[in-house]
Amino acid sequence: SRPKITKVSARKLQEKKLIQVCDGITDAASSNDIARAVHTELTQDHSLAVTSANLVARAYQAGSTDNLSAIVSIFS
Fold it and tell me: What is the pTM of this model?
């Protein structure tokens, strides 16, 4: 397989979020649902680690049995 590589200026990324998840997460929620959940968590002052863990927990509770991992980052 070939990865899709996109180059973006670092200035355009300031304060943007990067959400990386395994397919087990997307089996349980759409990309929009995941983005909304991350936004809600971060507006409630949850840390990036807690936000990531909560994405995994939600997918597990929804019954996903595939790989479950998530990383949320904010560019500064």
Answer: 0.84
